[in-house]
Design brief:
Layout: E1 2-13, E2 16-22, E3 33-37, H1 45-48, E4 49-53, E5 62-68, H2 73-80, E6 86-93, E7 106-111, H3 116-127, E8 134-140, H4 148-157, E9 161-167, H5 173-179, E10 188-193, H6 194-206, E11 211-216
Parallel strand pairs: 7-8, 7-10, 8-9, 10-11
Antiparallel strand pairs: 1-2, 1-6, 2-5, 3-4, 3-6
Length: 224
């Protein structure tokens, strides 16, 4: 198992915090996820292993994990990490990626901390000079919005990128389609708490939506 050293950490918004590790030579596609292991969180895998969708773009040359800090043993152990200390990584996985080089638009739907893969995707496409022909619907339970300044800068640099922040609204298929009717006709990427992605995803698929999903376990409509 590869060990990556922590370079820095920072608060993003509310209880969302980012941890930036050296890349250790890892390669990944924007939107993929990785297993992270902290033995100090407990002897059982249920305590010491968590999956995170990487928030960093491959072109940034670092591995960034952005997550809400909660009371679990893993999250508390992660929060205690100091620069120079290490975390284990293994089992890179996932096909929640936007690799199309054409100008075909997509709709990106984030529920709270489920926005992390979209940061990776958009930053990577920007770095590689690809079009950012997307509508990002960023649902947040409150005004504590991670990466808002970065998304606003990307939108300012790319007129084809439309970023909308939807604060305190329930996430539903009906709300998504009403907010952006284009979602009925183009690929939709839905990411967020597992129960929401499952239920809203089923509703969207029942209406024939071309859907890609990224499930974040451990979150619900109150904690996302």
């Amino acid at each position: 198992m590869l060990q990556l050293k922590l370079l820095s950490s920072r608060s993003e918004a509310g209880n969302i915090k980012s941890f930036v590790f050296e890349s250790g030579g890892l390669t990944w596609l924007a939107g993929q996820n990785q297993a992270f292991v902290l033995p100090q969180a407990g002897s059982a895998e249920a305590d010491n292993l968590r999956w995170f969708t990487l928030a960093s773009a491959p072109s940034e040359g670092v591995v960034q994990v952005s997550t809400r800090i909660g009371p679990s043993a893993f999250k508390q152990a992660l929060d205690r990490l100091q620069p120079g200390e290490s975390i284990g990584v293994r089992d890179l996985d996932g096909d929640f990626t936007w690799e199309d080089v054409s100008a075909t638009p997509v709709v990106l739907v984030a529920g709270g901390i489920g926005v992390t893969p979209f940061r990776s995707m958009l930053m990577e496409r920007h770095a590689r000079g690809k079009p950012l022909n997307a509508v990002l619907l960023y649902f947040s339970r409150d005004n504590q919005i991670a990466f808002r300044a970065e998304f606003d800068r990307l939108a300012a640099a790319h007129p084809e990128l439309d970023v909308r922040y939807l604060i305190g609204e329930p996430i539903s298929a009906e709300r998504i389609l009403a907010e952006e009717p284009l979602a009925a006709r183009v690929p939709v990427y839905l990411s967020g708490p597992e129960p929401m992605v499952e239920s809203v995803g089923n509703a969207l698929k029942s209406q024939g939506v071309d859907l890609h999903q990224d499930w974040f376990p451990g979150y619900d409509e109150r904690s996302y």
